[in-house]
Amino acid sequence: MDCRYREFSPTKSEERINKALQVFPKGLLMRLLAFALHLLGLDRKAVAELVNTPVESVKTVVRIVMRDGFSAFRDRRRSEELPVAKASLSPPRITVRREGECYVVGFGPIENSLKIPISFRIQARTVLLSLVNASLLSVSETAAALGIHAAHCRELARKLASHDVVESLVDKRQGQKQDYLVGPEQKAEIIQQLAARAITGQSTSSDVLAEVVNEVIPAKVSARTVRWHIQKLGLTHIKTNLPQLVETLKKKS
DNA sequence: CGTGTCACTAAGGAAGGATA
DNA sequence: TATCCTTCCTTAGTGACACG
Q1: Residues with CB under 7 A from strand C
Q2: What digits encode the pLDDT tens for the residues A114-125?
Q3: What is the rounded distance in angstroms from the CA atom of residue A115 to the CA atom of residue A145?
Q4: What pTM was estimated for this model as a whole?
């Protein structure tokens, strides 16, 4: 939706928001506004400023609304449901504690114990959370030993109960996943132009390539971005090597 | 002039603390 | 204790600028 040339009246807005506040709780109204502004194309920082909330909260609102739909606009923290791993009913005979650089799991009165280095994060969590799921260790004790909150400990244990270690305990943060400006078509065009120009001895400067790429596929790819992708695709030395290679192949044929 | 480096912002996503 | 919120990590993209 293109709102660029529409006029918004601050007075009317204030008036209408005040009226809306008689019906909607403030938090809910701000979420609705934040989501609407997001849909209209405003960047998150500007949305956050307008609804007077941290940028991160805007991210959360957008994320949960996109995930759960309309119900996510209201505060759902009071709702019941979702079965959770039950805490231990019988008193735990197995204990866990930190000792220096290790977690020590003590098995009852017998002096057998299991030591896992604290630096072995995944291994330690796998063992301890499995014991939690078997009701052999309490959530609070395990959480304290691992240095995390009981709530999070419960959550990790729940995940481990239904998924393998890789899915439940390994950090899967990956950063931005999409190439927004330079997709497969643009990459192909960069490679094609770079190769053709290198062979024919024409300029392969990032400025020229950016211009050509933008001509062929309408986008706003900057020269700097072209350089960034040339490097990422490992094409940096093509312009010197390729003409030689072509000559060699010509002579052979 | 053209390129690579540095420093930064934007965005997606997960961890973990806070809270209703 | 389920959900929210903040913090942190990662990659994509970019402007400024030093350097060859």
Answers
A1: A 27, 53-54, 56-57, 59-61, 64, 72, 75-77, 79-82, 84, 86-87, 139, 150-151, 154-155, 173-176, 178-182, 220-222, 224-225, 228-229, 232
A2: 888 776 777 777
A3: 13
A4: 0.42
